TrEMBL record:
Residues 41-68, 93-165 are annotated as: Disordered. Residues 97-107 have a biased composition (Polar residues). Residues 118-130 have a biased composition (Low complexity). The chain crosses the membrane at residues 6-25. It comes from the Eukaryota. It comes from Vitis vinifera. Residues 41-56 have a biased composition (Basic and acidic residues). Keywords: Membrane, Transmembrane, Transmembrane helix. This is Uncharacterized protein.
Length: 165
């Protein structure tokens, strides 16, 4: 039994130096991490202090600039000009909105056909104007504001006539 104990003691003494080195390394890691965290906190605090100093210096400069009466007058005039420009922009937007609304009303009164080209629409407009004149000749008592203008106009193109023959 003594032999087994003796071997265990030898094993313990043989492992002791490496175990000690391992434990010291773990403690050093812990200390290094703690020191790095402290450094980061110090850096953050110094950056915050620098920012505060910059803000204070900027505020001091603004106060120093604000004490000049000529600069104050210029700032007041600039503010008035900005307000005037804003009012002009608002008025122009209102005018644009009202003109757009009028255009939409006029556009809804006119009948438009989206698939036709501009030359076709011009020829149709001239054909419809000629037919309106013919209808006025037939019924001279009717004025322009009567419903005859809103009656549908049928165009009989030569192509349609060929198909009917």
């Amino acid at each position: 039994m003594f032999r087994i104990d003796f071997h265990l003691v030898q094993l313990f003494f043989a492992c002791m130096p490496s175990l000690a080195v391992y434990l010291v390394a773990q403690y050093a890691r812990y200390e290094i991490r703690r020191m790095e965290e402290e450094l980061e906190l110090k850096k953050k605090q110094t950056e915050e202090e620098e920012k505060e100093k910059e803000l204070e210096s900027n505020a001091a400069e603004e106060i120093g600039e604000g004490s000049d009466p000529e600069l104050l007058k210029v700032k007041v005039r600039l503010d008035k000009l900005e307000e005037a420009v804003k009012e002009i922009v608002v008025e122009s937007k209102k005018q644009l909105d009202s003109s757009v609304a009028k255009n939409q009303d006029n556009g809804s009164k006119l009948e438009r056909q989206p698939n036709k080209t501009s030359s076709q629409s011009r020829s149709e407009a001239s054909n419809s104007a000629a037919k309106n004149l013919k209808s006025e000749e037939i019924a001279p008592g009717l004025s322009k504001g009567t419903p005859t203008e809103s009656l549908p106009v049928t165009d009989a193109s030569p192509h349609d006539q060929k198909g009917k023959i």
